[in-house]
Amino acid sequence: MDLQPLEHRVPPPVVALLCALLAWGLDRAVPEARLGLPRNLPLALGLATALLGVALDAWALWTFRRHQTTPNPLVPQRTRLVVQAGPYAFTRNPMYVGLALQLLGAALWLGNPLALVAPVLFVAWVTRWQIQPEERVLREKFGPDYECYCARVRRWL
């Protein structure tokens, strides 16, 4: 299988970190765009959203480990089976959803609408350069079983 130049090359947590830095940079560059919310509200909303993302990531990793398959997104060909339990029953990509929630939490904490570009960019990047190539590999490896799973469970939410 031929991969495009960026497919499976940049680990999604690194992409998420770069997007978080972008959100922070946009907030610092345009502080006047911040919403005039009460001081603790952005912190509470951001923290709750980010913690939900961390919990989803932990649940997804635990589920992969329990099924003894690799959680490494850079080598989908090493996957032993299509995990359909736990968070994988309602999203095919709970680890990426978790990272997107963490970025959304950071954007909420900043209280700057410009920071929302971070989770949007993350979702776009990961969909194109990580998820679509993963899906090609899994379709080739698991065939109809994976197709049935895709028909039943959404890519994101």
UniProtKB/TrEMBL annotation:
Keywords: Membrane, Methyltransferase, Transferase, Transmembrane, Transmembrane helix. GO terms for molecular function: methyltransferase activity. It is found in: Endomembrane system. It comes from Oryzisolibacter propanilivorax. It holds the Pfam family PEMT. It is a multi-pass membrane protein. GO terms for cellular component: endomembrane system. The chain crosses the membrane at residues 12-30, 42-62, 99-126. GO terms for biological process: methylation. Signal peptide: none annotated. The keyword Lyase does not apply. The keyword Membrane applies. This is Protein-S-isoprenylcysteine O-methyltransferase Ste14.
